[in-house]
Each structure stands twice: as C-alpha cells, then as structure tokens.
Design a protein that fits this description.
By secondary structure, this protein is α/β, with parallel strands linked by helices. It has four domains: 29 residues; 150 residues, Thiamin diphosphate (ThDP)-binding fold, Pyr/PP domains (Rossmann fold); 151 residues, TPP-binding domain (Rossmann fold, 3-Layer(aba) Sandwich); 48 residues, no CATH class. It is built from 18 helices and eleven strands. The chain has a seven-stranded mixed β-sheet with strand order 7-6-5-8-9-10-11, with helices on both faces. Helix 4 packs parallel to helix 7, helix 11 runs parallel beside helix 15 and helix 13 packs parallel to helix 15.
Length: 393
C-alpha cells in the first residue's frame, strides 16, 4: 500500500470519528473510560475501599480511584499486606478489592489472594499491565503471569481492548449474578424438605453460625432468621461477630471436641442442627471433631445446601434464607422455649499482681469502644477469643 493510500485511509478514519462524535453529542451519549466503566458498578454494589500499591502500569487508573466520590484508596507498603487486608477487612469494605502492578506486584499478592480463595473470601483482584505491544515483545517478564493467577480464582479475564472490556466484565458480573440470584425448580423442594425436617423435630433445633455468613454478607438475613424463629444460636470460632453476643439466645462458641461441656451437649444432643455458612477447616472445627450426626444436620452454604445426606448444588443461602425464615417463623413459640444458657464472660479473681492468661482474656472486651475490633492470630489467642464478648454495637 502506497503512502498516498495510507494518508487517504487516515483521512477517512478521521472523518468517521468526527461524524461519530457529532452523532453521540446530538443523542446525548456520554463517553466513559474503561476505568470508570469498572468503578461505577462496583460503587453501586457497595464497594467502599480499594487496597493496593501504586506501580508503573496502574497509576492512570488510580487517578480515577482517588477522584471517585464513593471509593477510598488505601495505599499499602507491599502487595502481600494489601491482599491480606482486603480479605481481613471484608465487613468494613463490603466487597473488598485490590489493585497492583504487573509482575512483581501481582506475584507479591498471590499468597493473600490464594488465602482468600481457600477461605471463601470474595476479593476482586485488578492488575495493571503493559501495552499489548510491550507484552508481545516481552521486555519485562517471560513467565505467563496472566495464567499464573487463574487457579487462585473462580473467574478471571484479560482486557485487551474496549470490546473485550465490555464482554469480559459483563461475563464475570453475569456469572456472579447467576450464582447469587438464579431461581431453580429445586429451590421450592429444598425449602419444603427443610421445613419438613424441622416439623419432624417438633421445632427442637439450634442454629450454628459460621464464617461464610460474614464473608458473603448474610448477617442481616441470619439475624432476621434467628429473631423470627427463636432458635438458640451458637457460633463457630471463625463465625464470631456474626451475631450479637449480648443477645439472650446466644449460647457461646462451638469448636468440636474442645468445646465447653455444656455448649457441646446443647449442640450435639439437639434434635436438629441448622448450620449457616459452615467452613470446615481443621482449625475451625477442632481438628474435624464435630459431633453432629449427619441425619440431624442441615447445612446452608453460599453455593449449595445439604439436608442430611442429600446434596443440592447451586442453592445458596443469600436469597433463600429470607424465604426459609417465612416458612419457619411459625415455630417461634417452640423455638423460643428451648433452654439456652446466655453467654456470659466470668471475671475470675486473681490474688497476684501478675497479668495471667486467666485474668487477661475475660477482661479484654471491656477495653473496646463501639465500632472497634481486634484480630486474633492462629495461636493461643484465637482459642481464647471465646472469652471476649463481641457486640454488634
């Protein structure tokens, strides 16, 4: 193709671009950048903050984040810290997400993203990358970084142009909506089966609340379920703070064989146990020592429901729990009469001036002010958190 032909094509392209801009202006069509195309729906979903580290390939996008009225940029010293903070601060940030730069930044965050994935914490992970031309020439890294993160996520996409941005982001949003909202013919059957099991137990049941109630933002639905059914509620260790522990129907922490004997009997001897958001890790289940027989156990999860030995995929609890509440609210008079010893922290006296473990943990909650919190490491402190009261205030 000659230089004259190329020049002619450029002129035609410029004219077409001007005509398109004129047409858009006449019809009131506003342009939106890819960055804002991503930020707008996230803000509508309730995203409040973004963790991350500035880098060569995300600075332009971060300018949009800093200018956004609803999303706060929370800078971190490295990618690993940002990834862990995003998963730990899930309740404060609604739907947490983070942003890193190509290569070193995204690999630094890999441990945190993998941890969030294994613990079922939803985190949106965004990576700024070089131009497609630079990626083809590979001036930076030769490793397949784009595919390295795929096993750590239930869904991912790579955006190379505007058309892919629309279809790629749309497909991910559609997948999330399908998982969360799609009604299935089996839903009515599952709800009826649960109601039948509660009826067969004469309304004698307890609720066991766990980590995924927090991680999938189901606390409001769970609290409504508890209030309208009247069932006693116990928390698993990682489900602490999912319910207000000052409520008189809250009985304490259940962690398998290492549970307080009174709580252990109340849970394991109940005619029916309804688990909400169970996370059966070794640390969270007393090294897999749950003493709840399967034939007396109903489990509602984010993406499935299990009724005794029957497993129902794609029947999650976010939008089914309110329907179940409507069905089981008729058992309130029975459920509210089931005896439960309200959880209370006993403050033991200590004759010595030393700050002992026995003295310290029951008093820790008295230091907290409303809206303050604490993180417990996976050691002795995690086991002693049962002696720290968590109030929703």
């Amino acid at each position: 193709m000659s230089a004259a032909d190329l020049e002619s094509l450029r002129e035609q392209l410029n004219r077409a671009t001007l005509e398109l801009q004129s047409l858009q202006s006449e019809q009131g069509v506003e342009k939106i950048s890819i960055g804002n195309y991503l930020l707008t729906p996230l803000a509508q979903l309730g995203v409040k903050g973004m963790f991350g580290v500035p880098g060569d390939y995300n600075l332009g996008f971060l300018d949009l984040v800093e200018d956004h009225p609803a999303i706060e940029w929370i800078g971190d010293c490295n990618g690993l810290n940002a990834a862990y903070l995003a998963s730990i601060l899930l309740p404060q940030c609604s739907y947490p997400w983070n942003c890193f730069s190509f290569g070193v930044g995204e690999l630094s965050a890999a441990n945190g993203i993998a941890g969030a994935f294994s613990d079922m914490v939803p985190v949106l992970h965004i990576v700024g990358v070089p131009s497609t031309t630079q990626q083809r020439e590979r001036p930076h890294f030769t490793t397949p970084l784009a595919t390295a993160g795929s096993p750590l996520s239930p869904s991912d996409c790579q955006l190379y142009d505007q058309d892919m941005s629309d279809s790629g982001l749309g497909a991910m949003e559609a997948q999330a909506l399908t998982r969360s909202f799609q009604a299935r013919p089996t839903e009515e059957f599952v709800l009826s089966q649960i109601e039948d099991r509660v009826n067969a137990a004469n309304g004698d049941g307890v609720v066991l609340i766990d980590a995924c109630v927090i991680r999938y933002d189901v606390r409001a639905e769970a609290m409504d379920f508890l209030k309208r059914t009247g069932f006693p509620v116990y928390a698993v260790a990682m489900g602490k703070t999912a319910v207000d522990e000052t409520e008189n129907r809250y009985g304490g922490i259940y962690v398998g064989s290492i549970t307080d004997s009174v709580i252990k009997i109340n849970v394991e001897k109940s005619c029916l146990v309804i688990s909400l958001g169970s996370l059966r890790s070794d640390f969270n289940s007393g090294s897999f020592t749950y003493g709840i027989p399967t034939d007396r156990h109903i489990e509602l999860h984010s993406n499935h429901t299990q009724i005794q030995h029957a497993y129902y995929p794609d029947i999650g609890f976010k939008h089914r729990l309110p329907k179940l509440t409507e069905r089981l609210s008729r058992f309130h008079d029975i459920g509210s009469e089931i005896p439960v010893e309200p959880f209370k922290v006993h403050l033991p006296s200590d004759a010595t001036q030393e700050i002992t473990q026995r003295f310290f943990w029951p008093r820790l909650s008295t230091f907290f002010q409303p809206s303050e919190g604490a993180g417990f490491g996976t050691s002795y402190s995690f086991r002693r958190q049962e002696n720290v009261t968590a109030s929703q205030s």
